[in-house]
Structure formats: C-alpha cells, structure tokens
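User: I'm writing a tutorial on reading structure tokens. Could you give me a worked example: one chain, its sequence, then its tokens, then a sentence or two explaining what the tokens reveal?
Assistant: Sure. Here is the example chain.
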Amino acid sequence: MAEAKREPPDDDHSTTLPDEVALSETTVTRPEAARGRPASGEPPVEALAIDTIRTLAMDAVQRAGSGHPGTAMALAPVAYCLWMRHLRFSPSRPDWFDRDRFVLSAGHASILQYAMLHLTGYDLPVEELQRFRQAGSMTPGHPENFITVGVETTTGPLGQGVANSVGLAMAEAHLGAVFNRPGHEIVDHRTYAICSDGDIMEGLSSEAASLAGHLGLGKLTWLYDDNHITIDGDTAITFSEDVAGRFQGLGWHVQKVADANDLAALDAALEASTSVVERPSLIIVRSHIGYGSPNKQDTPDAHGAPLGEDEVRRTKEVYGWPPEPPFFVPDRVRAHMGGQVERGKELVAEWEGRLARYGEAHPELAAELRRRLAGELPEGWDAGLPRFEVEDGPLATRAASGKTLVSIAERVPELVGGSADLSGSNNTLLPFSPNFSRETPEGRNLRWGIREHAMAAASNGLALHGGLRPYAATFLIFSDYARPAIRLAALMKLPVIYVFTHDSIGLGGDGPTHQPVEHLASLRAMPNLCVVRPADANEVRAAWRIALTRREGPTALVLTRQKIPVLPRDAGTEASGLTRGAYVLQAEEGDAPDVVLLASGSEVQFAVEARLRLAERDVDARVVSFPSWELFRAQDQAYRDGVLPPGAPRVAMEAGSRLGWREWVGPEGAILSVDRFGQSGSYADNYRDYGLTTDALVSSALEVSGKGD
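And here are its predicted structure tokens:
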C-alpha cells in the first residue's frame, strides 16, 4: 500500500495522518499487500521481523493454552517501529539510568513485550517464550517487573500502566531540572506507553491524562491501540466517545495513524511526538485484532484465547510463513533485531562519557546523583528530628507528622510528594520548595488535585524511575480510591510512603462517609504493606524513620485528626520500640501482669489511663503500644513472648474493625472495636457512644483478669 499523503494539522492540537482504511470483519487483507511486500521474492527484513513477532505470539499462546494473541498480532508493527527506530535502550545494560522507559499498559498483550525483549537481545531465551504463563517462568501472563528483565513496571489492571508512565515522566522532568546544566544534559529520556481501549475506558487513565496535560509532560507519548474490540464484543456496544477530542481538551497533542501496518505513518507520528516539547502526545493507531487470521480477525475470539491449531496454521499461510517449526525465528530477523545489543552499548558508552565530563564540571551534583541512584540516604539524614515532651501538651499525630516530614525533607532532597487536594489537612506541604509544575519542574511539592487513584499510581512510577522517594497523602477513608495502586506498590516492593490522616470515627462531624472503620483491617490484609498507626508524636518520629529506611515495600502511616497527648513512658523506654511493631510502653509493677492492655494510635492514651485506674483496684496491668502488626510479626518468638506473655489475659482497643485482633488477644481475650459505621458527632461524643473509653477498658480488663466484683 502506497503511503497516503499526510494532511496539515487541522488545529493547534491534532495532526491528522493517513485516512483510515476500513477492513470488514469478513475480509482479510494479506500483510504483503498492506506493507508493500512484493508478490514474489525475498520479503523486506522489516516485514519478516513483524511477522516473526506475530507468529511468536500465536505459538506462545497456543502452547500455553491461554492468553491474548490478537493484540500482539495487531500491534507487532507498532512495537517494531517504536523499539527499532525510536526507543533508546540497552539489552546488555537494562538498568541504564538514561534509557527511555517503555510501559505496556495493555498488559494482557504481554507476549508482545516478551517477543520484543527476546528478539532485541535481552536475557530472555526462546525457551521462556515456550513456557509462557507457566509456573516459574520468566514470562508470566501479565508483565511483572520483578520477574522479567527489561519490564519497567507490573501491568495487569487496566489503566495502571499509563498512570505509572505519568509518574515516570514526572520523575524525568524533575530530575532533569535538578541535575542538568548547560552543556551537560545527563537526564534526557522519554517515556512511551502502549494502551488499549480498556485503558482508555478506565477512569484512572482520565485522571492521569488530565494531570499529564496540566503539567505539560512533553516527553510522554501514549500509543493507543484503537482496535474496536473488547472481551464482550465491539467497543460500539459500550464506547462511543471522541477520544481524540477528549485528549485535545486535556491539553495533549493528538495524532491519528489510520493503519497499524503503515510503518511510514507510525514513524512520522513518533517523530512528531518528540518535537512537541510542551504537551504529552497521544497517537491513536487503528489496528485490527488478530491481524491476518482468516476467521478471527476483528472478533473477540482473537482477544482472550488461543486461536486454535488450525487457525494458527491458516494464519501462517496468510503471512507466507512455514507452519513448522513453532517459535521459528529467521536468521535475518535475529541478526537484524539483535543489532540493538551493540546499539545499546554505544548509547550507554556515549552517556557514560557525558556523565564523566559532568562529574568533572559539577562534582557535587554528580556525587549526589550517584548517591540517589544507589538508594542510599544522606549521611545524618535523621539528625535534628523533632522530639516531643509530655508537657508540650496534646498534638494530633498528623501535625507531628508534618513537623517530622519537613525536618527530614530538608536533609533528604529526593523526598518528593504531596496530597490529593488536602495538603493543609494532611500536613504534607514542604514550605521551602515550590510546586512541581511546567514552570518549576524542580519543585518537590506534587499537587495531585482530587485524583487519589492517579496520585497513588503515578507515585509508583516515581518510585520505579529511580532517584526519588515519593510520598502520597489523603484521608484514610479515601485509601479506597488509591487501593489498586497501593496493592501494586506492595506487589512490586516499591518504597512508596502513604500518609493517611483522619484515621477514625474521631475525626468529627463529617459523618460516616468520612469515618474509616474497616480500612485498617483491609490494609493489614494486603501482603507486604507495612501499616503503622502511631500512638503519639514521638511514635510518629519513629514511624517516619521506618518509612524512610524500608526499601522492600510501601509503608502506610495512619494518623489522627484530633489532638492526643504525648505519652509518658517508663524510664529507658523509647518510642523507637515502634520499629519492632509492638513494645511495652508501661510495664507492670510485679513479676507478671494480671492483664495486658493492647492498643494502637489514639486509643493507647486510654490504656495508659486504665492502667492507673486498675492499680487502684489492685490489678497490675501492662500497657503495650501496638502500632504495626507487620513489624511485630517479623520479630522472633522470644521478643513477641516478651511483649505478650503467653497465658496473660489481654484486652485490645482500636477505633476500627475487630477483624484480625483475635490473633493477638487469644480466644479468651476481649476486643473493644468499631464494627458498624460511624456517626456525625464530635470526637468525644463518638468515642463515648461507641464504647471507646477508659471506663470500658477498665471494665473489660477486670472481666478477663477475673478480678472484677
């Protein structure tokens, strides 16, 4: 097919590329015709490479017995054009810092990425493609960055990848502003994402795209696979919006490529996207799912299941491809695409030369960059953290967190973050820094707007990029809006810090819609998320220390709106005991406690008061502050038994669901909790009405200890 003439832009946002060429559901256009392949003779190596990607995808899904072959078949030319002509990467140095980032947000098409990694020389042998979706393989059903070398981020839930890409682009813009100097641009790379109809439909992508357009992230390009097919059928049954118009309204540069097989048009669109420096770019590519399949092209049958042995054979006939052996890679293709290894080495060598010259011209900046990329905290980063005294009076833990955060951020310049339009309530603003914006990309205050999901997902991108430590803040109740991205941070072991304030029914008159009840239990159920609910200002200081030093997963700090006292402690007992999850805040007077009072957060104050009241009744109580179940579980049995003596009666109090507390109080212990929705009322009234009082705790302690009247 001859390349259609490109029309001039029809407005200041959109470049229109060749008019769309329609293919009916029953008509299959042979790839030779679509790409200008001669009717006879040796095919061009590019056409051969594209068909190699397609046939690898078909064979891998067929052998696995499950998967999504159709999208990979449709997008093979797009992936080829991007990776071979535009993407800057190094298969032998996949962690090279200044590489372009590629995100396959349409993660169901993972075999497309695996085929590209294999063919361009990453450490992903063909045997791993043959083990696609099998236990223990390097080719899981959706891309996992902790399994497959060359995969930047874990994508599966639609919308997450594109939102991650916004965070990656933000990180590049910020670090470039901080470290680049005239003649020394050592942070200079782009972020590309392939997204699907599903990504575009998910609300998260709208949040992320809105933010990217507002920030003017000019080094971000999304390639939208407009194939008109979802699992349930043609997208027309659910989706009729003007995607181009929507993104233009969001401030994006928009282009259309009418035929995914048109390499010239794809190349021109990608080239044009690099010239747009003040807006992110969307390239809408009309493709045909299951391209070349005689019976399944443009149908849902090509989306989520193998084509079937007979259809694979027929499709290979359409491509002019030998039916056997499966996973066939022509020598010409292997040599052609494998050339990216040497190209990548040259790119790395050139960058390392620039980095060396940068180090000579700006040694302090170079040392700072190396420290950040190594993941090391600055020496003395925790010097001067605020300390709080009982006589200072009550202080909300959210306020103590704000003081601690500012103190840390002054010494840890890679700490960046912000709030979902609640910075004053969450106490997360850094007063000494400007906002991150298109005018001041060096700013460290990230203004997310009312976009909790995009905030959390983009924070994952910030953490994935390297060189930054992100924190993200909102009310605990709205962790529901961020939860999918929090789960992926835990899965990827990303050290994102969440600041969740307004942590209970104690927040006041906003009522049950704003009062979290089940959220602590829900977050604690998530593997590899460390949840910390400090009991006072000094525990907050210790909690931030945990959050900064934890590298293998995210940390959630759960903080009060209401003021609570700075707690008295036994001599020699420090709030640093929080680092072990639970510790004896106040010990019993005798050799063993008559009862152990366990609590977290704002309820620990009631345990301290109850201990004094119980002493008047000759009941010797121990108070255990229990801010983090995850940290406590990580301790050895001897330590845990030392804090919670086996056989000692126990009572727990927490302003949230009782779910999970039985593990700590045992079958005979008592739990004072909140197991129904909250109410609109003051902190004091709510705690009284829900039985979270010193009197209630004393009564329960007397009952379980057997020392009541």
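What the tokens reveal: The first strand starts at residue 14 and ends at 16. The radius of gyration is 29 Å.
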